[in-house]
Amino acid sequence: MKADPFVFLSSDGTEVASYTEEEILKYKQYYGLDMPLWRQYLNYLFGIFTGNLGYSIYFKEKVITLIFSRLVWTAGIIIFSLCISSVFGLFLGSFSAWNCQRKIDTILYQGMVIISEIPSFLTANMILMFFIIKWRILPTAGGITPFIKIEFSWSFILDIIKHAILPSLTLTFLRLPDFYFVSRSAMLQQIQKKYVETAQAKSLGDIYILMKHCLPNAINPIMTRFLLSIQTMFNATLIVENVFKYPGIGKLIRDAVFYRDYLLLQGIFLVITIFILSISLLGENFYQTIEKRKEL
């Protein structure tokens, strides 16, 4: 398949209108693709510093506007799934660590190992088929109901939430084992320390010991995993959003690749890279702040 985006868009067998040779040359001049590569590169760098990432070849819209309009959808399911998976992972990991070497710990640990080995596309398709065949109570595709009236109302908000449940549920299952393993490992290290024996000798409750004494000392690796999970979530959304046809950044990447929209792809990767580097910097500053407080 030819790599030229305009030749691809004007080729036979597509669902878009064909372009003539004159139209292709006109578009190349408009997007600056007829210039030497070094000139195109300098223009692109100048555009980055001025906030202009160009226009999408296929969508006919500003790249930066298109990216942020889709990023809102992706951010919603990522934040929701991270909160749910981190809370349940922390709870199950702490419970498993407190009951280490018991039957319940073995069951939980083996179950999380199995879940962690299931590929993301298989998890997404299993959930999709289950709600298509067994439970038809939630929408299985799209971000909103077609032709719904877009307005700030409870019915519209509820419709958005219902469409986001299945993608969020899939991402939650994908990240739950990571939070479980990190929480279990961090809690095991704290439970084996002397202050826990002292707290037990004072007849303090198990939940009080875990939440009041163990968790504050084990929070560093858990928070580090939380921030790193934001980065890895973008990889998972590429598959999950395409399975559920969810209008987020993952589906936008797929569309940009399919339609050879290079300007859009460059803009997406640039924005995601900046976002990931910012999260890494935030995580490093958070870790240093916690360490300084411990020293005090």
From TrEMBL:
The chain crosses the membrane at residues 41-59, 71-95, 107-133, 154-174, 262-283. Belongs to the binding-protein-dependent transport system permease family. SUPFAM superfamilies: MetI-like (SSF161098). Its main location: membrane. It comes from the Bacteria. PROSITE patterns: ABC_TM1. Keywords: Membrane, Transmembrane, Transmembrane helix, Transport. Residues 71-283 form the ABC transmembrane type-1 domain. It is a multi-pass membrane protein. It is found in: Cell membrane; Membrane. One of its GO terms (cellular component) is plasma membrane. This is Peptide ABC transporter, permease protein. PANTHER family: OLIGOPEPTIDE TRANSPORT SYSTEM PERMEASE PROTEIN. The keyword Acyltransferase does not apply. GO terms for biological process: transmembrane transport. It comes from Fusobacterium animalis 11_3_2.
